[in-house]
Amino acid sequence: MIVIVDYGMGNLRSVLNQFKRLKINAIVSSEPNEILKAEKLILPGVGHFANGMKNLKEYGLLDILNEKVITQKTPILGICLGMQLFSKYSEEGKTLGLGWLDAQTVRFNISSAKRWKVPHIGWNTIKFNNNQPVLQNIKEDDLFYFVHSYHLVCDNIGDVLTTTIYDYEFISGIKKDNIIGFQFHPEKSQDCGSVLIENFVNLNHYV
Question: What percent of the chain lies above the pLDDT cut of 90?
C-alpha cells in the first residue's frame, strides 16, 4: 500500500487522482497506523516551508516519518515542498527541516527580475546528474511542470539526481538511498510524470 501523507499542505487530491488514473492502490492519510503499514510514502506539498514543518509537528508525524524513512528505510517520494522539507534548513521562514539531506532550501537569486519571474512557473527540462531506476524511460528533453520560488542547494553532490536551468542551474531532483524527491510536479506533468510515478512505485529496494 502507498500512503500519500496528509499534513494539511494541499495538492493531495491531484496526487491521489494521478494514482487512480494509473490504477495504483494509494490512500491519503495522516493516521500513524496507516503510515506505519505503508510500503512506500509520498510527501507532497504546496505552500510555505515553515507552515509545512509546523503542520508535521502538530499532526504528530515527525517521529513516525523518521521511524519509517530513516530506521525502516521505507522509500519516500517528496514532491515540491515535500522535497524541500527533506533539507536541514530553509530561508523561507528561517526554519529547520527534517534534516534527511545535507541541504538547504534557498530562494531563487535571479539575475534579472524582468526576464526571470519568481515563482518559476511552467514547463522545463531536466538534466541527469545520476542515472537511477526512477528515471527509467525518461529523456533529458522531456518536459515537467514547475511552480516554486525556492530550491535545494545540496552539500553532497552525490545526492543530486537531476538539475534544471532557470536563469542558472538548480537542483530539480534528489536521491539518497530510499529518499527521492522532485521539485517539479510529476502528477501535473502528463505522460512523463506518470512514468516517474510508476518507476517509483516499481522500485524493489532503496539502493
Answer: 95
| Predicted TM-score of the model (pTM) | 0.96
Find cell 515537467 and name the residue.
Answer: 144
Q: Could you tell me the sign of the dihedral formed by the alpha carbons of 71, 161, 168, 190, in that order?
A: negative
**Taking all residues of the chain, what is their mean pLDDT, rounded to a whole number?**
95
With respect to residue 206, please indicate whether it lies within any of the assigned structural domains. Answer: no
Q: Are 178 and 159 in contact (CB under 8 A)?
A: no
Counting every residue, how long is the chain?
207
Cα 20 from Cα 126, distance rounded (Å): 26
Whether the pLDDT of residue 143 is over 60: the answer is: yes
Q: Which residues are part of the catalytic machinery? A: 80, 185, 187
- Parent domain of 108: 2-201
Cell numbers representing residue 57 in the block: 509537528
* φ, ψ at 125 (rounded to 5°): -90, 170
The vertex-57 CA angle with 54 and 62, nearest 5°, equals: 130
- How far is the C-alpha of 122 from the C-alpha of 60, rounded, in Å? 34
Query: Total structural domains in the chain?
Result: 1
